[in-house]
Automatic annotation (TrEMBL):
Pfam name, any one: SBP_bac_1
SUPFAM superfamilies named among the record's database cross-references: Periplasmic binding protein-like II (SSF53850)
Keyword Signal in record: yes
Sections of the chain in a coiled coil: none
Protein name, UniProt field: ABC transporter substrate-binding protein
Entry-linked PANTHER family: ARABINOSE-BINDING PROTEIN-RELATED, BLR3389 PROTEIN
PROSITE patterns on file: PROKAR_LIPOPROTEIN
Length: 453
């Protein structure tokens, strides 16, 4: 089967810039948002999204809902959109009716009461429809504050040609200790087993994978707990990664998503990635010479147990409004794009990795062996492997319970400032860097009026 995939326009580097001032557009009130409620009897809604597959669902939705007109606008990718969204809401003008928000950033808007609980529209009945990881990410403080668009369960993408040369069988590696031994063998060939120059999103995913729970926010949003230094599961990952850094077993100099990074993936000098399930087409476009060489395995874990975490993924959330007609129209579109079978298929055919159990268990999806580029050419990039079988298994294994901070965008933006030097400066340990990051986060929380515990 062919997997038609267009490159996802989702930036997945972990370092996020601190929210800064940006002029808000429009002149309507925040409760009226930016769409109009009447255009020849139609309700108009404005959707902000950088995802390239979402606009493809508009035609099908409008055919089924001729009384609703949908405009999808790219207001910027992740941090740029969040800056515009926050400023528009706070200025009381220019906010969209529906907005794409990554899972890690969703709590910020829920705590500030800037997005709506979709339970009133029936979203609370969808618990069995979505994967555990994505469903838990949109369930916040007893409400459903978004519908999952896609998901990013972690998986191990590896260059089998390099691994074979090193005598490493990825399918036999279940623990981090085994990963460490494999890293030494890979390094002996001249390649690195993977790269990490200081990615906050990756740090979150790996500590989640280890079972850490360093962050907690009270239900009323007034108290936060930040316990990176005292969480023994955080220490499990930090100690493991420090050993790899100390022994030059991972590439810490090549920045993710840079040209040099793609070059390393292409020539095999970076031999594997621990990353989200959205990666296949990015490999096809960024490392074309790897075609036929790469495979996918399950994530090694600290103790070899079967568990997983998420890395990336987005949702669609309703911006708070008093205009019931627009809220209902915007919810209908969100449900079509994220819950309706045709809407989901349109997005998956365009390259989105699904968040729903029906797609993840369908024969059509699971039997895919080829990626299809934008010119219609099929590529068995993973050597004929039914790659979605591995990725669906990864999605089913995601644990729930990990919490993000109510200012996670800021937290990721300053991670490199506090911990980044530990990846390249031997005089600074990752433990020291994480301690500095924790202090920064606690100071920031207090400045924002939170009680820090």
């Amino acid at each position: 089967m062919k997997f038609t995939a267009m490159k996802k326009a989702v930036a997945l580097t972990g370092a996020m810039a601190m929210l800064v001032g940006m002029a808000a557009c429009g002149n309507t009130s925040s409760n009226d948002n930016a769409g109009s409620s009447n255009d020849g009897g139609k309700t108009e809604i404005l959707v902000w999204s950088w995802d390239s597959t979402l606009p493809r669902t508009v035609e099908g939705f409008e055919a089924e809902n001729p009384d609703i007109k949908v405009t999808v606008t790219n207001a910027g990718t992740n941090k740029d959109e969040y800056t515009a969204l926050t400023n528009a809401i706070e200025a009381g003008s220019g906010a969209p009716d529906l907005v794409q928000i990554e899972y890690y950033a969703l709590p910020e808007y829920q705590i500030r009461e800037q997005i709506m609980d979709m339970s009133e529209f029936g979203a609370d009945k969808f618990s069995d429809f979505y994967t555990p990881g994505t469903w838990s990410s949109v369930n916040l403080n007893g409400g459903v504050y978004a519908l999952p668009m896609d998901s990013g369960p972690m998986a191990w993408f590896y260059n089998k040609e390099v691994f074979d040369k090193a005598g490493v069988n990825a399918d036999e590696i279940k623990t981090w200790d085994q990963f460490y031994e494999a890293a030494k063998k890979i390094r002996a060939t001249g390649s690195y087993i993977t790269s990490d120059s200081g990615d906050a999103g990756f740090f979150d995913s790996m500590t989640w994978l280890a079972g850490a729970q360093p962050f907690e926010t009270s239900k009323d949003g007034t108290e936060v707990s930040i316990n990176l230094a005292s969480d023994d599961k955080v220490a499990t990952f930090v100690d493991f990664w420090q050993k790899l850094i100390d022994e030059d077993l991972i590439d810490t100099k090549t920045v993710g998503w840079s040209d040099d990074w793609n070059k390393g993936l292409n020539d095999g000098s970076i031999a594997s990635l621990l990353t989200g399930a959205w990666m296949p087409y990015n490999l096809l476009s960024g490392a074309p010479d790897g075609e036929g060489k790469w495979r996918i395995a399950q994530m090694p874990t600290a103790d070899g147990s079967t568990t997983n975490s998420e890395n990336g993924g987005s949702s669609l959330a309703l911006v708070k409004t008093d205009d019931k007609a627009k809220a209902e129209a915007a919810y209908k579109f969100a449900e079509y794009a994220c819950h309706n079978a045709e809407g989901i298929k349109t997005r998956v055919d365009g390259g989105a990795f699904p968040a729903d159990n029906d797609t993840l268990s369908s024969d059509e999806f699971l039997n895919m062996t080829a990626l299809t580029d934008s010119d219609g050419n099929a590529h068995e990039y993973f050597g004929g492997q039914k790659f979605n079988e591995a990725l669906a298994e990864a999605a089913a294994n995601v644990s729930t319970g990990y919490k993000f901070l109510p200012f996670e965008v800021y937290a990721r933006g300053v991670y490199a400032d506090d911990a980044g030097a530990a990846y390249t400066d031997k005089s600074i340990t990752l433990k020291d860097g994480i301690a500095a990051w924790e202090k920064n986060l606690k100071d920031f929380a207090e400045q924002q009026g939170y009680t820090v515990k």
